[in-house]
Amino acid sequence: MFASLLVTVALALFGGVGAAPQKRAPAQVYRKCTVANTVALTFDDGPHAWLYDISDALSAAGAQGTFFFNGNNFGCIYDDVNVQRIKYAYDNGHQVASHTWSHKDLATLSSAQIHDEMERVELALQRICGVQPAFMRPPLGNYNDLVLEVSGARGQDVAIWDFDSGDSLGASAQESINRYDEVASQHPSSILALNHETIASTSEQVVPYAIQRLQQAGYRLVTLAECLGQQPYQWVGEPQTRDSNWTC
Ligand SMILES: [Zn+2]
User: What spacing in Å lies between the alpha carbon of 121 and ligand 1's midpoint?
Assistant: First the structure.
């Protein structure tokens, strides 16, 4: 009976895998960090090949970053190489979060479609890392009231940014570096920075430079959750073992 009580409590606390989302208020939208003197370097559109270099550059500097993963954008999240990349980011203390399944513009979708785009990534992160993410970044930064309603119902807040390296908009590595120079010189209280882990020059040139420049400017490079004084996950459990359901 005690064991079944424990299960009941665990289910009540953690919702359980695949449990119906609880009704909540619409998601909050965060455009800025709230903790002074922090920078959150965030990386969208992976898992991708440059994740290891970005993770290692952060770790070597005593820094942490945040990866907003897609389920099926550049590749399937369940491909073994991608599972290994996600585990690597998580195991090295970086935050993992949802960029939704297939990088659709959520503002054009129905409630059921938005739920589906979100749920499939959540399930993947539950399976691969054993976590339920607390943050979602809508593709292209696009959202409407329905997106906030669905996201809130799924227990996730929406993370935008207040600094764009420009790497997905065609900025060269030097242009992105110049943007980091500029913002470091302006020295705002905090920086929530958008980057893409799918771009080689971001990994090879921009990230190493940005880490050094921002640390020299006196910032702490932390996860998105830490720069907001929030928890990164709705719950943390154990990773699962691959089975035949791990498919895109
Ligand atoms: Zn994206």
Answer: 14
Whole-number Å distance between alpha carbons of 114 and 94: 26
**Residue 49 alpha carbon to ligand 1 centre in Å:** 16
What DSSP string runs through 208-221?
HHHHHHHHHTT-EE
Whether 196 sits among the annotated catalytic residues: the reply is yes
Instruction: Name the pTM for this structure.
Output: 0.91
Q: What is the pLDDT of residues 226-239, one digit of tens each?
A: 999 999 999 999 99
Q: Tell me, yes or no, if 164 is annotated catalytic.
A: no
pLDDT value of position 24: 78
Can you give the pLDDT at residue 23? 57
- Pairing between β-strand 233-236 and β-strand 131-133 as defined by DSSP bridges: antiparallel
Catalytically annotated residue among 48, 99, 103, 196: 196
Q: What are 126's two structure tokens?
A: 């539950």
Domain range for 200 is 35-233
Residue 11 lies in a domain: no
CA of 45 to the centre of ligand 1 (A): 5
- Ion ligand 1 residues within 5 Å by Cβ: 44-45, 139
User: Ligand 1 center to residue 1 CA distance, Å?
Assistant: 47
Q: Looking at residue 14, what is its pLDDT?
A: 47
Confirm whether 104 is domain-assigned. yes
Q: How far is the CA of 140 from the centre of ligand 1 (A)?
A: 6
Only one residue has tokens 């979602």, namely 136
Q: Which residues of the chain have pLDDT under 70?
A: 1-23
Query: Does residue 173 sit within a domain?
Result: yes
pLDDT at 128: 98
Catalytic, out of 44, 45, 157, 167: 44
Which structure tokens are listed for 14? 């953690």
The number of folded domains in the chain is 1
